[in-house]
Design a protein that fits this description.
Oligomer: heterodimer
Strand content of chain B: 5-15%
Structural class of chain B: alpha+beta
Largest sheet of chain A: 5 strands, parallel
Largest sheet of chain B: 5 strands, mixed
Helix content of chain A: 40-55%
Shape of chain B: rod-shaped
Number of strands of chain A: 5
Radius of gyration of chain B: 55 Å
Number of helices of chain A: 6
Chain lengths: ~150, ~375
């Protein structure tokens, strides 16, 4: 709780659909937790951001990653695998946020050590509800590792 | 002396006659050599009698007039003649019989030949027919394969189309909803109305696409048919529908239900859709629904009976077709896919679905699921629910 008063929570959203980015932003706006939402549009960029490479040398390390599975260039699965294989990055919680309800995707994601798997609801109210519950759980209930 | 002469002459004559008949018998009986020898012997005897007669007549008395010898000769002649006389018709009969037999055999051979010919023709025809049938069967198999493929493709297409349509639709729906949420009452009345139409359209399309997805999943994402306790499935469905049951103040009862080979999820869908219909199209009174199952001709026939508004007989076929609705959307919401889904599920299980109903007198929907055991449900107690 101390953490929240010191600084806002950093969230990295890896999502190629600008509509979803905006919706997530809007949903988070309604939340109670002060947060900074950073967005990247594909898998390559996500890893560059996390490793502070290229244009992201000034990037802050996120407290939570919201990761879509279907991404251009490098898929969400590959990004997940690389994060969880990286001794420095692997303790950052990764929430898979995707439209896929396929059992295969769910199993694969958990096998790659995803911290949780959520399907995007079709309805706006439900979507807002889901984002809020992500916020509630990961940003207030859970104790996160220090940055 | 005269008597002797007559005997000798008669014997000679008879012997000649016998020889003649013996020769004639060759024609009737065959066996030429034997008859010729007999005829020659008879001729020889006749010649001897003739010579003896000649000598006696010419007064050569050195020839002894032996009455016994000549009498025997006469007797032999008579008996030979009689024998020939008797044998001839016998042989003739035998010959005729042989002839008849030969003719019969010939006819039989002809018949056999004709029959063989017929059989050969029939065989050729059969071969041709067999060939045609084989070709027809191959064609049918090809058509069936084509149909299966095109069905699978169509289902796949419906699935992909509805799945991929969901993504952009989610955007339309979400942002119109956001627009409504943020700006309702802040613009003018027209704007509110436009937003409402947009939100409503997007919502309906979402339901439609979900239903289409569900419909295409019956074939593409169906699970194998396994023994399924329908009573458990129904109870689960009733839990899902608890809110709607409470809202409509419906009373749902059921008889013990059997375990049948089925896809559990799809059985749940069929119960849920039929129950929702029973609750949705209610009559003047609160809905009363009864679910039951009867064993008939190796299948279980489930029935869902309600006291709702009923269906005009002329529409009772049409309601199972895709996108068919009998009411205005404003009166009864729905996509017109629920019963089509039920039909598809019943058919996937090898069963059928039909309805018995009259306007104002409620409806009973039936669907059959083949297989399962005969007296399965007797083991269970009758349990009314809700």
């Amino acid at each position: 709780m101390q953490r929240r008063s010191c600084r806002p929570i950093e969230i990295l959203l890896v999502e190629d659909n600008p509509g979803d980015v905006r919706l997530t932003k809007e949903a988070l706006k309604e939340g109670k937790v002060m947060n900074v939402l950073n967005t990247v549009g594909d898998g390559e960029e996500a890893l560059a951001y996390l490793r502070r490479q290229g244009v992201y040398t000034q990037a802050t390390r996120p407290d939570l990653i919201l990761l879509d599975l279907n991404l251009p260039r490098k898929s969400g699965r590959e990004v997940l695998a690389e994060i969880k294989d990286d001794p420095d990055l692997k303790r950052i919680p990764v929430v898979i946020l995707t439209i896929s309800e396929a059992e295969q995707d769910i199993i694969k994601s958990y096998n790659l050590h995803a911290n949780c798997y959520i399907t995007k609801p079709v309805n706006l109210e439900q979507f807002i509800g889901v984002v809020k519950s992500i916020e509630d759980f990961w940003l207030t209930v859970v104790m996160l590792p220090p940055r | 002396m005269h008597g002797l002469l007559i005997i000798i002459g008669l014997a000679a004559l008879l012997q000649l006659l016998a020889a003649y008949f013996a020769l004639r018998l060759i024609r009737v009986t065959g066996g030429r050599t034997a008859w010729v020898l007999i005829a020659l012997a008879l001729c020889f005897m006749a010649l001897r009698r003739g010579i003896k007669l000649w000598r006696l007549l010419s007064g050569d008395l050195s020839e002894s007039p032996d009455l016994f010898d000549d009498s025997v000769s006469l007797a032999i002649s008579v008996s030979m003649l009689a024998a020939v006389w008797w044998i001839a018709p016998l042989f003739r009969t035998i010959k005729q019989a042989a002839e008849t037999l030969r003719q019969a055999r010939d006819q039989l051979e002809l018949k056999v030949a004709a029959r063989t010919e017929e059989l050969r023709d029939a065989n050729i025809r059969l071969t041709v027919e067999l060939d045609e049938r084989r070709q027809a069967e191959a064609k049918l198999a090809r058509y069936a394969a084509d149909l299966r493929r095109s069905n699978a493709e169509l289902e796949q297409f419906a699935y992909v189309a509805s799945h991929d349509l969901q993504e952009p639709l989610r955007m339309v729906a979400s942002f119109t909803q956001l627009l409504s949420k943020r700006y309702r009452g802040k613009l003018d009345q027209d704007a509110d109305e436009f937003i409402d139409f947009a939100v409503d359209g997007a919502n309906r399309m979402q339901v439609l696409i979900n239903d289409l997805l569900a419909l295409s999943r019956v074939g593409t994402r169906g699970k194998p048919l396994e023994p399924t306790d329908c009573e458990a499935v129904l109870n689960h469905t009733l839990v899902n529908l608890a809110a709607m049951l409470q809202e409509t103040r419906a009373v749902v009862t059921h008889d013990p239900l059997p375990t049948v080979p089925a896809d559990e999820v799809q059985m749940g869908q069929i119960f849920q859709n039929l129950l929702i219909n029973a609750l949705k199209f209610q009559g003047r009174e609160a809905p009363k629904v009864h679910i039951s199952a009867q064993r008939q001709d190796g299948e279980w026939i489930f029935s869902i009976q309600d006291n709702g508004m009923g269906i005009d007989p002329q529409y009772q076929e049409r309601i199972f077709a895709i996108f068919q609705r009998l009411h205005r959307r404003e009166d009864f919401p729905g996509t017109g896919l629920g019963l089509a889904l039920c039909k598809k599920i019943a058919e996937r299980h090898g069963g059928r679905i039909w309805v018995e109903s009259a306007p104002g007198r409620g409806s009973t929907f039936y669907f059959s699921i083949p297989g399962g055991k005969e007296n399965d449900r007797d083991a269970k107690k009758k349990l009314p629910t809700h």
